[in-house]
Amino acid sequence: MTISYTLEVANSRFGGFSKLLFRWKGSIYKLLYKEFIVFMVLYAALSFIYRQLLTEEQKRLYTKVAQYCNRSTDLIPMSFVLGFYVTLIVNRWWAQYTSIPLPDQLMCVISSNVHGKDERGRILRRTLIRYANLSAVLILRSVSTRVLKRFPTMDHVVEAGFMTQDECKKFESLHSDFNKYWIPCVWFTNLAAQARGDGRIRDDVALRLLMDELNLYRAKCSMLFHYDWISIPLVYTQVVTIAVYSFFAFCLIGRQFLEPLEPGQEGDLDMYVPLSTLLQFFFYTGWLKVAEQIINPFGEDDDDFETNKLIDRNLQVSLLSVDDMYQDLPPAVKDKYWNESTAQPPYTTATAAETLKPSFLGSTFDMRMCEDVEQSQLAEASPSMPRIQTPLLSRFFAAASPAISIKNFGRGSRGHPHLRRPWADGGFPSPCPNRSEDPESVSRIEEEMEDEESGASKPTIPGSHPVGTRSPEASETQREELPLIQVKAPSSENIGADWPEACEP
């Protein structure tokens, strides 16, 4: 049976876990005491032979062997091998428990969607849920030793009421080389389709919901079968077992008390009982025993699953929900807090102190804000406000301000001539055709561009054009490619304004 101690560790207190150390059933002492006694007996026998029966020359040879064995224990990665193995098994153990089929969702769907208070409706509901429980019993007989001992043959299943004699004959007549736990699920689907045809299930949506819940139930039965079929690779289990037993085989020899080889050499402390080695054996071997116990939780160990109790519970609850509770509802009345805006259930004297604690409203609810009134004023963003950039971004986005963007708009081959196409006479259309262009602003921008070009010039090299200057042909071609920047007014507000605003009449 499953050993539960959850109530004893509900509250953390001084010495709370210490009380659990004195339990015997389900404890590590019950699992490990035989191996522990064997290890102590072998250690004591080797110690007696070394101290009483060996000659001086044999002791010197034994000392060298013991030192070699002690060094060899450092070469076995016990923590890594055991830790990964036990973690894998614990995850698999919990996944197997969550794969046990429970009929709770399915019985609610059957009770709400298979209608009829007459005998035929009652038979349909009870038969549907019985087929579901039969499928679970068949799969648990295949994986659990406890369930197989309870139902060793199909006659015992019939005697328990999970199937009738006619159903058993039909089940046995269907020949298959594989596990036949899925046959009751097929009976379930056919019976549900028949109920839909008779009008017991009123629409296809209800039938679809019923089929979906059955498929989830059947999928859990299938997962149990696959967990039983596909085990953790035997190679991994063998590696871990060999690593643990070889480690403590080396410890039997290497952790013995050794006399010094030289007459004047100081020896180790003579501990007749090797406490550290025994604790190490207790931890590592106990870790391995935990893995051995839960690698198959469908056995008869102390912490294995109570599969027989689950079968009893599932059958009783499911039949109660689809039969006795069908349309047997308590009267719908006004609740206690009908006329109250805020519902507040009462507290007992033992829990009254909890009402004094304020409710949690968020981690920033009690944060103190700045008392400066100016910092709490609302600020509206406008196009004239400067754009703030971090130093890192300003290295990559050099043309951040509107003025720089205007000056560098159409320079060289990096410009975008496709944004403004020239007319046939070589001129460019104005971006704002309804506005007159200011010649002063145009001349001012052209002067800034000429100053930048003249400042970038460098001494020339004989036989070539000066750096920063262009040949007349290149200058003429570049002049044709460069678009003219036309601005209405030289003010910074119009320059920094957005394009649609600059084009308004």
Low-confidence stretches: 398-428, 430-437, 456-482, 484-505
What is the CA-CA span between the terminal residues?
A: 89 Å
SS summary, helix count:
19
Query: What's the pLDDT, averaged over the residues?
Result: 81
Strand-pairing-aware structural class: mainly alpha
Report the principal-axis shape: extended
Sketch the major β-sheet. none
Beta content comes to under 5%
Number of DSSP-assigned strands: 0
Helical content, roughly?
A: 40-55%
**Radius of gyration, rounded?**
43 Å
Q: Provide the succession of SSEs.
A: HHHHHHHHHHHHHHHHHHH
Please describe what this structure looks like.
With 505 residues, this protein is mainly alpha-helical. It has 19 helices and no strands. It is extended. The protein starts with 27 loop residues before the first helix and ends with a helix. Mean pLDDT is 81; it is low at 398-428, 430-437, 456-482 and 484-505.
Could you write a compact summary of the structure shown?
It is built from 19 helices and no strands.
Secondary-structure topology with pairs:
Blueprint: H1 28-53, H2 56-72, H3 78-98, H4 104-113, H5 119-143, H6 145-150, H7 154-159, H8 165-173, H9 183-197, H10 204-229, H11 234-254, H12 275-294, H13 307-324, H14 391-396, H15 402-407, H16 439-455, H17 472-481, H18 492-496, H19 499-502
